[in-house]
Amino acid sequence: MTMAAASGNNLRSLIFEVRADGKASFSVLDQLLLPHETKYVPVLNVEDAWDAIRSMRIRGAPLIAIVAVLGLAVDLTSNEKTLEELAAADDARAFVYEKMEYLKTSRPTAVNLFNAMEELKDIVEKAPSSQEQIVDVIVQHSQYMLERDVSDNKAIGTHGADDLLSRCSHPDGIRLVTICNTGSLATAGWGTALGVARELQRRGKLRSIAALETRPYNQGSRLTAYEIQTEEMNGALICDSMAASYLKGKGADACVVGADRVCANGDTANKIGTFNLAIVAREMGVEFFVASPFTTLDVQLENGDKIEIEERPAKEVIESGNAPKDMPCWNPAFDVTPAKYITGIITEKGVLKKSTDGTFDVKGFVKKHSP
């Protein structure tokens, strides 16, 4: 069975297939080459999955988690070296857990990766102890993750669109601003923040969407602009530094962004530049929403000060900005937006709004919606 992460217009972030003999094959869209070249890169083992995540050939918190699990599945079913090592291992579970720990080192900020590994570990713990049965449950879960992600993303889009339209008086609908890429290319399909835009577009209620370029990796200009054009949305690309002027001159009804981790108090880690946009939005009286899967809510961290922020190589800033090669750089991949700037958190379970005291009860929301 072949499973391709896709939206209605075939924006496929990955292709995963399990053949009749049980062996899996897996390839990912090299997003570093978009929008000018479409190339799928084979993932043959966990090392390839780790590299695809670390190098940002794939990115987006939901997709990072999915690629890690699919990489493990293909490694355990199709990599001859791994199959030989697994057959010789005294403890199949311990062998698998070691590979899972390795995958967790690929990128530290996105909590989805860690949650996915913990979820898979629980499943493996409950599986029968034979090597074949352990591998089978991992493959089955990887396929389930793909299906669940698309379903969750569409629910995020529905909840977000419903909430925004409930306060909209314009007959043509909503004007949005977003940053980074949160669409089909960041997920198994449809998207989170961009999924809200997709749902508004589906209803004929997306007046416009502006995408910030999102330096230094330019996920907005390379990926979100590509998705906006593919979906034929009424969109515009703006420089990160233009956000204030855009909100003042053109106007917007809401900013909707993704998230890599949401703390117990609502502080949110997302792509660098999100905090800037939140400050500008508040000054301009524009609502600011985070849209992310329920698994992004991390109630173990009380606030954003405790989030580990990944720092990327200086060359990413130097090469994208045509700067002197020996110029010192500081290049954090993420920033943390304090909860006070956030209007609501859109998940597949619903939209979390602030309590009467002006704070988010993320722990209560998670408790209410957890099994």
Layout: helices, strands, pairs:
Elements: E1 2-5, E2 14-18, E3 24-29, E4 40-42, H1 46-54, H2 61-78, H3 80-88, H4 92-103, H5 111-126, H6 131-165, E5 174-178, H7 193-202, E6 206-212, H8 219-230, E7 235-238, H9 243-249, E8 254-257, E9 261-263, E10 268-271, H10 274-283, E11 287-291, E12 297-298, H11 314-321, E13 334-337, E14 344-347, E15 350-353, H12 362-369
Parallel strand pairs: 5-6, 5-8, 6-7, 8-11, 9-12, 11-14
Antiparallel strand pairs: 1-2, 2-3, 3-4, 9-10, 10-13, 14-15
Helix pairs in contact: 1-2, 2-3, 2-5, 2-6, 4-5, 6-7
Strands of the widest sheet, in order across it, are 7-6-5-8-11-14-15
Major sheet attributes: 7 strands, mixed
| Unreliable sequence segments | none
Shape: globular
Radius of gyration: 20 Å
- Intertermini distance: 30 Å
Count the E strands.
Answer: 15
Mean pLDDT: 94
Structural class label: alpha/beta
- What share of residues are in beta strands? 15-25%
- H and E string: EEEEHHHHHHEHEHEHEEEHEEHEEEH
How large is the count of helical segments? 12
Range of helix content: 40-55%
Protein architecture, described:
The protein is an alpha/beta fold and 371 residues long. Helix content is 42%, strand content 17%. The chain has a seven-stranded mixed beta sheet with strand order 7-6-5-8-11-14-15. It has a four-stranded antiparallel beta sheet with strand order 1-2-3-4, covered by helices on one side. A four-stranded mixed beta sheet has the order 12-9-10-13, covered by helices on one side. Helix 2 (61-78) packs across helix 3 (80-88). The protein starts with a strand and ends with a helix.
